[in-house]
């Protein structure tokens, strides 16, 4: 497997020099990642900022390692969304890494916070789960992994701001029902399994009500210690 | 006879996908039998069916959905308990050549032995030597989950009587060695006819219809005729365009997509230049000019001219940036749509599905970072899809027929994986 990946990386590195079958002529699409991900941007926005569809997530600025893990999961069917599973099926892993790097490097502003129709009690419950968790039910604070400012940590933990409530609930639901799985140990599955419907509604509403922080960049790798192990964030 | 027909269709089903990654092309003339066997296993695309997503290579367990239930491919690693570790070379030859298990039992034709029977004994033995050399994986085969009566293997006998003729490839002495090498690969290990043949009333492929094209059941993709120049017949393609298509997935004339992307990704990209060229020579050779049937449409003329004018509006807004206002594209990466057989065929299934689902050609050694096309299923209505497909099938001198909104709607539910 390793040798194969190397061979492919070399092939990609040589792309510029490649002048065989896929000959360059004047009339070619731009040789950029932006042109190569045009298949993605109708759903994710030109810079990965997201679109008006509440289930289509923002990609911009998320940790590259996290985005790469998601692309692998879609390619291999561990995470299911048929239109994306289909697009990625025959793309080489080093190319998926480049797509991940591309969207991780985009920095369009976070969207303005939409007015929430959740009650004060619901928002308070959400805030308390995110910042303190619920030790009695063995739910760690979301911030203990996603960071005190909820901007995530390199390489594998995403920030939780700039996501819409419908998307957040759908993802937590997908973990509870097993249609989304991450690398083992799948810590997010363990967290999601302990949440009730009410908890999910509350955290989704509260997270979506947060204003953009000054810096949205994920914390560097190893900035803090996770409460338990995550396959997506090897130490 | 009726009762066995569904089983016959099973063998036409192929299952896209695998986590196989690129690798250096092994040299088929290399001194080691194992290396030659590895190369031949690539040419036979064993990995497409015998490796599950994220599964260990060749350990089987890949689910193959069929209209009659689900088949699971077998573990063909040399594990003694769960794989083929106890098989002799003779057992293996019997499987590949006759479609029989070591105890004489009949294999489902989803395992393409009807094509592999053409493979020589020496090549079959090289594949066996290679399979014996890979790491054994202890993973028990999963039972097939077929509904009664399809679970009864005796039904396979009926299929065999009609569609299976055992026998190694016989070269045609009137043709060049290169042509014959191409024929050997296409008809044998390449099992191209498994998809590129019409499914007749009995759901099988008859010899005389080989390579004449057909709709792949369950997947809803049309595998075009390789003999008709109105479909994927390559009679007027240059050899270079054909070899580019097979080796890299893209060419100046068109690109591969859907199940054909799987074939290029897992198999054809690994064939060496000589073998690729031989296949191209053969494919070009079997294409026969067929009289173009008058474009027939089920739509009244008034309706189709309205559709086509709406189609031009949709095209200029959503498609022209890549495919060009005159359908000229920017080949090979953004394929041309003018004079592109693959969208003019009688069956409009493929162009409709392309517009609904978009796609990337496979990433290959020759084209590791392909450009893609977005899916339009969520952006365009049935009417707009029908309109734009009707437009590209008839504009710029293209000779396809318009399609209806109903045809577009029906393909929205086609499976994506």
From TrEMBL, chain A:
GO molecular function: electron transfer activity; heme binding; iron ion binding
Keywords of the record: Heme, Iron, Metal-binding, Signal
InterPro entries xref list: Cyt_c-like_dom (IPR009056), Cyt_c-like_dom_sf (IPR036909), Cytochrome_c4-like (IPR024167), Cytochrome_c_Oxidase_Subunit (IPR050597)
UniProt xrefs under Pfam families: Cytochrom_C
Post-translational events: Binds 2 heme c groups covalently per subunit.
Highest taxon, organism lineage: Bacteria
Entry-linked PANTHER family: BLL4483 PROTEIN (PTHR33751:SF11), CBB3-TYPE CYTOCHROME C OXIDASE SUBUNIT FIXP (PTHR33751)
Name of the protein this chain belongs to: Cytochrome C
């Amino acid at each position: 497997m390793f040798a194969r990946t190397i061979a492919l990386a070399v092939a990609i590195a040589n792309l510029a020099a490649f002048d065989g079958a896929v000959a360059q002529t004047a009339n070619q699409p731009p040789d950029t990642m932006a042109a190569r991900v045009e298949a993605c941007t109708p759903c994710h926005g030109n810079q990965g900022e997201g679109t008006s569809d509440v289930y289509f997530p923002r990609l911009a600025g998320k940790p590259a390692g996290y985005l790469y893990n998601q692309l692998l999961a879609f390619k291999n069917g561990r995470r299911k969304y048929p239109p994306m599973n289909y697009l990625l099926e025959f793309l080489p892993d080093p190319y998926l890494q480049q797509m991940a790097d591309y969207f991780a490097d985009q920095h369009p502003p976070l969207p303005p916070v939409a007015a929430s129709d959740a009650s004060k009690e619901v928002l308070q419950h959400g805030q308390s789960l995110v910042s303190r968790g619920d030790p009695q039910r063995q739910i760690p604070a979301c911030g203990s992994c996603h960071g005190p400012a909820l901007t995530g940590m390199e390489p594998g933990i995403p920030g939780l701001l700039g996501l819409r409530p419908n998307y957040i609930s759908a993802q937590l639901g997908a973990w509870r029902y097993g249609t989304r799985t991450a690398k083992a140990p799948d810590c997010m599955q363990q967290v999601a399994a302990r949440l009730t419907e009410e908890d999910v509604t509350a955290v989704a509403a509260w997270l979506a009500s947060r204003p953009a922080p000054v810096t949205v960049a994920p914390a560097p790798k190893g900035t803090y210690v996770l409460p338990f192990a995550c396959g997506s964030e090897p130490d | 006879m009726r009762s066995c027909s569904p089983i016959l269709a099973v063998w036409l089903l192929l299952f896209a996908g695998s986590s196989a990654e690129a690798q250096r092309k092994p040299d088929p003339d290399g001194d080691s039998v194992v290396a030659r066997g590895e190369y031949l296993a690539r040419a036979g695309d064993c990995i497409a069916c015998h490796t599950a997503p994220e599964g260990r290579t060749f350990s089987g367990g890949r689910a193959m959905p069929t209209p009659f239930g689900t088949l699971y491919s077998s573990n063909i690693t040399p594990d003694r308990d769960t794989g083929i570790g106890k098989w002799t070379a003779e057992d293996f030859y019997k499987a590949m050549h006759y479609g029989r298990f070591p105890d004489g039992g009949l294999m489902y034709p989803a395992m393409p032995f009807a094509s592999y029977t053409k493979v020589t004994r020496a090549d079959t033995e090289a594949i066996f030597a290679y399979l014996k050399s890979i790491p054994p994986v202890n993973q028990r085969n999963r039972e097939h989950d077929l509904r009664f009566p399809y679970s009864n293997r005796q039904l396979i006998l009926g299929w065999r009587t009609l569609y299976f003729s055992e026998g190694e490839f016989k070269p045609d002495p009137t043709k060049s060695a290169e042509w014959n090498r191409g024929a050997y690969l296409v008809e044998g290990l390449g099992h191209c006819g498994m998809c590129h043949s019409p499914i007749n009333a009995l759901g099988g492929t008859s010899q005389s219809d080989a390579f004449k094209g057909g709709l792949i059941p369950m997947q809803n993709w049309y595998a075009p005729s390789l003999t008709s120049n109105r479909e994927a017949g390559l009679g007027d393609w240059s050899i270079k365009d054909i070899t580019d298509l097979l080796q890299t997935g893209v060419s100046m004339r068109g690109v591969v997509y859907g199940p054909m992307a799987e074939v290029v990704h897992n198999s054809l990209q690994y064939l060496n230049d000589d073998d690729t060229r031989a296949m191209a020579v053969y494919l070009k050779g079997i294409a026969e000019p067929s009289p173009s049937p008058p474009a027939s449409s089920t739509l009244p003329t008034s309706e189709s001219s309205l559709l086509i004018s709406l189609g031009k509006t949709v095209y200029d807004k959503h498609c022209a940036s890549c495919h060009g206002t005159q359908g000229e594209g920017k080949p090979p990466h953004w394929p041309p749509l003018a004079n592109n057989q693959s969208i003019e065929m009688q069956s409009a299934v493929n162009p409709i599905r392309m517009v609904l689902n978009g796609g990337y050609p496979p990433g290959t050694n020759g084209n590791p970072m392909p450009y893609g096309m977005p899916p339009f299923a969520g952006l365009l209505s049935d009417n707009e899809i029908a309109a734009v497909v009707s437009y590209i099938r008839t504009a710029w001198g293209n000779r396809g027929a318009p399609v209806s909104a109903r045809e577009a709607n029906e393909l929205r539910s086609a499976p994506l994986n």
